[in-house]
Structure formats: C-alpha cells, structure tokens
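Re-run with default settings, no changes from the original entry. Doing this only to confirm the output is reproducible before filing.
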Amino acid sequence: MADPPSKSGNNPFAKLAALRGSLPLGDPKAPAAQSPVEAVDPMAALLSRKVVMRRERKGRGGKTVTVVQWPDGAEAAALDALARELRKGLGTAAQREETSIAVQGDIADRVAAWLAGGARLASCEATEALASEGRRRNDRSVTAHQRQELDQRLTLLAGWCGASCAFVLDTTGQNYGASSPLPDGWQALAEAAVPLVIEATREHPLRKGGHLHLLRSVEPPFAAAESFAGVYMVLLLFDEPFAAADVSALVRRALPEIEALTVALPPPDPTRVARIADGRAG
C-alpha cells in the first residue's frame, strides 16, 4: 500500500527515506554498552541483613544446635562461605541448611557476638560501620514505631521482674530504649549502677566475644544486666533486693524480641537520646 500523501501534496515518509542513506550503519553483532557493575561480596551482604537465631534440640540426635536463619532467604554460596568462617572463628562445627546455618552447641551469645563484629571484623570501627549500614537500610517510616515497640517490651519486662525501670544501652551508656513511665529517683539508681555495669564490660569486652551476666540482688545498687549481639545490654534497676534466678529467667525469655527490635533501629539521634550515665533517658 502506498504511503498516504500530506495535505500539501508532499510525502513526509519519502523525505525520511531520503535521509536513511546519510545515517551511519551499526554493527548488528556488536554487544550493547554496559555500565560497569561494582562487585559485591555476597558474605558481607549477608552479614548486613536481618537474621533470626534459635536453639534447636529436637531432631538433632540429642545435641543442641544454634540455628542462624535469614527470613528473606540467602544464596547457597554465601551461606557456605559464612559457615566456613564460623567454623574457623568459633572452633565448632557449622553447616548450611537451606536458608540457614546450623552451628554445633548452645552458643547463641558467641554466634551473635561473632556476627556483630568480634572475630569477623578487624576493628571496632568496622563493626560499628557494619551495624550502622544494616540499620540505615531499614525504612525510616517505621523507626518511630520500632522505638515505641522496644519501649513497650522494656515496660513489660520491668513489670514482670518488679524492677523500677529497664533500659537497652551499649557499652558507652548510650540509651536505645527505656520503660515508661520512669519513676522519681531513677537517675540516682542509674548513677549508682551504670558505672558498675560498664566497668564489667571492660573486664569482659563484648566485641571480643565476651558476655555480661550481672545480678546484684543482695546489696545496692540492685541491678540486673544481660548483654546481647556483642554490643548491647538490657539493664534493670531495682529499689530493693530481688529473686535473682527468677529475674534472670525472665530476661532471657524476653531477650530475643528485644534483640530483634534493637538491632533493627538506626543509630540514636544525639539531640534526642542522651547517655544513661549522664542521668538522662532522652
């Protein structure tokens, strides 16, 4: 079929056909230009994502294993590489199982410390950079909700244990969450207990695989503290002596949810949150 003529009698398609000969010819076999893609270490990417840990004994031949799982999936190659590093760093068996790694033994604290930094990274600065990068990837729109949920968990924990207040802080005394409402006189309790807790973390550095399990249930300052993820700790302050075994069991029961909420948070805003050691909760 002939091309339709224009109203002026000129054929615009004929003009385009005339220009065809002046256009440069391309090589049909030449590959399209591609922008360079930066190589990404799959194991490093795996370490920056959210993980869930649990202890399992059923179906394990009577042995306890610590299972590290990535809820959104993980590549087999990255899991195999990470399992090898875990075997080297922790000196125990570790193997890939679909989207998880099974580590031999009831050593969740050591595994968490290793993943957070410890034996995997060369310096504390690198550990903080990794933690910050993982937290920055979280949607900022849910940050306020996450903080509120963490505060609610701490409020419940304080109520279960009969504590005056509960906090999540790091080894510098930086506050990440607090129970509410804070009672009158909580600053005096914090000023007495926090220096002792921080001093205890210096004796057993958390970033080097140490673990803090402190119970001052008989003499003041009355406090209980439990570390997690190689950086943080839960701290409960009491007005009077308490049942150490009961409080310890309740803290361990609540710790997985508190840990998951804490590690998902971005770094605290220094204009909003102050150090507990300074007597301010933010």
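Residues 35-39, 118-131, 137-141, 270-274 have pLDDT under 50 and may be disordered. The radius of gyration is 28 Å.
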